[in-house]
């Protein structure tokens, strides 16, 4: 994710960006007493506002440094004809005199901030949960590796173009998104009054959809708490159900015009990354059994970090 935004991002900047993105996710998902007790508003009794200002200052300084480094690289011609990253594209748009909308530096910062905060933590969390579920269900791991051997073979590393040819890999992704959605809720606003089960929802009301509960609803899913990718395979109850927001029982990215803008990338990049980890390494849990308890936050992390011992499985393969 960091390389897509700024391909030459130094290691210390990448680490700081990941740390800031993690703190943003924690703050957004934190319980705020001021939301429930009007008397406490403005007092910052939990220190959340203070922490938010601190993270904002660090993130803004980081983004400024990244942009300045990119501007120097472009002036010096140090890109060497490399493929453009997202920051290059944004700067090209800002410098285009014929552009209908003129991008400012603050616009570029805001765009990069959204990518870092909304894309990095959710992507890493999804990959972590997918791998943990596969290790907890070795039969699923064997099926995925059999599909990898059949579709990709052992002479090259799996890539994003292979994802479309791997239905079981896609089923593993869907099942993980059902059980462990990257976002717990989706937020909308009622544009006109509407009645729902006898209640009138006035126009302008904030409406929250519990994506987490929808994915575990027994009215939609048989044995909803079981990790079972086969339900999305041909003949399964979830055959034909996709996570793009067209099926109410599976909406991990929301739905409609305000659905997650990174959905298309996530549906390809996340399974491709997971597939490469499964293809190239054997994974051992140092202290079994693996703890599958969930943590707290807007993006549901594992309560305990996923600590594994990797062993090269196809170490002779060149990286793409």
TrEMBL record:
<keyword id="KW-0812">Transmembrane</keyword>
<dbReference type="InterPro" id="IPR002401">
    <property type="entry name" value="Cyt_P450_E_grp-I"/>
</dbReference>
<keyword id="KW-0479">Metal-binding</keyword>
<dbReference type="GO" id="GO:0004497">
    <property type="term" value="F:monooxygenase activity"/>
</dbReference>
<keyword id="KW-0503">Monooxygenase</keyword>
<dbReference type="InterPro" id="IPR017972">
    <property type="entry name" value="Cyt_P450_CS"/>
</dbReference>
<protein>
    <recommendedName>
        <fullName>Cytochrome P450</fullName>
    </recommendedName>
</protein>
<dbReference type="GO" id="GO:0016705">
    <property type="term" value="F:oxidoreductase activity, acting on paired donors, with incorporation or reduction of molecular oxygen"/>
</dbReference>
<dbReference type="GO" id="GO:0005506">
    <property type="term" value="F:iron ion binding"/>
</dbReference>
<dbReference type="GO" id="GO:0016020">
    <property type="term" value="C:membrane"/>
</dbReference>
<keyword id="KW-0349">Heme</keyword>
<keyword id="KW-0472">Membrane</keyword>
<dbReference type="InterPro" id="IPR001128">
    <property type="entry name" value="Cyt_P450"/>
</dbReference>
<feature type="binding site" description="axial binding residue">
    <location>
        <position position="260"/>
    </location>
    <ligand>
        <name>heme</name>
    </ligand>
</feature>
<dbReference type="GO" id="GO:0020037">
    <property type="term" value="F:heme binding"/>
</dbReference>
<keyword id="KW-0408">Iron</keyword>
<keyword id="KW-0560">Oxidoreductase</keyword>
<dbReference type="Pfam" id="PF00067">
    <property type="entry name" value="p450"/>
</dbReference>
<comment type="similarity">
    <text>Belongs to the cytochrome P450 family.</text>
</comment>
<dbReference type="InterPro" id="IPR036396">
    <property type="entry name" value="Cyt_P450_sf"/>
</dbReference>
<keyword id="KW-1133">Transmembrane helix</keyword>
């Amino acid at each position: 994710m960091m390389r897509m935004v700024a391909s030459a991002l130094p290691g210390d900047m990448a680490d700081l960006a990941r740390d800031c993105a993690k703190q943003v996710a924690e703050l957004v998902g934190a319980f705020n007493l001021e939301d429930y007790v009007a008397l406490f508003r403005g007092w910052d009794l939990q220190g959340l506002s203070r922490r938010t200002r601190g993270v904002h200052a660090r993130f803004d300084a980081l983004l400024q440094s990244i942009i300045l480094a990119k501007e120097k690289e472009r002036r010096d011609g140090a890109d060497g004809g490399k493929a453009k990253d997202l920051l290059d594209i944004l700067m090209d748009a800002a410098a285009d005199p014929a552009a209908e909308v003129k991008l400012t530096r603050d616009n570029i910062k805001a765009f990069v901030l959204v990518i870092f905060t909304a894309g990095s933590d959710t992507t890493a969390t999804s990959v972590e949960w997918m791998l943990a579920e596969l290790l907890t269900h070795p039969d699923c791991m064997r099926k995925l590796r059999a599909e990898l051997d059949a579709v990709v073979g052992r002479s090259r590393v799996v890539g994003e173009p292979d994802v479309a040819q791997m239905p079981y890999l896609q089923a593993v992704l869907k099942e993980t998104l059902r059980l462990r959605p990257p976002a717990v809720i989706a937020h909308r606003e009622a544009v006109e009054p509407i009645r729902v089960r006898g209640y009138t929802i006035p126009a302008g009301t904030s409406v929250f959809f519990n994506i987490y509960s929808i994915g575990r609803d027994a009215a939609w899913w048989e044995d909803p708490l079981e990790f079972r990718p086969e339900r999305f395979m041909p003949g399964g109850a979830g055959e034909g159900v996709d996570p793009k927001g067209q099926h109410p029982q599976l909406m991990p990215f929301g739905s409609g015009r305000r659905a997650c803008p990174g959905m298309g990338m996530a549906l390809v990049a996340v399974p491709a990354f997971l597939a490469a980890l499964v293809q190239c390494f054997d994974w051992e849990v140092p202290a079994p059994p693996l703890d599958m308890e969930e943590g707290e936050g807007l993006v549901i992390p594992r309560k305990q970090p996923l600590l594994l011992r990797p062993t090269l499985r196809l170490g002779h393969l060149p990286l793409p």
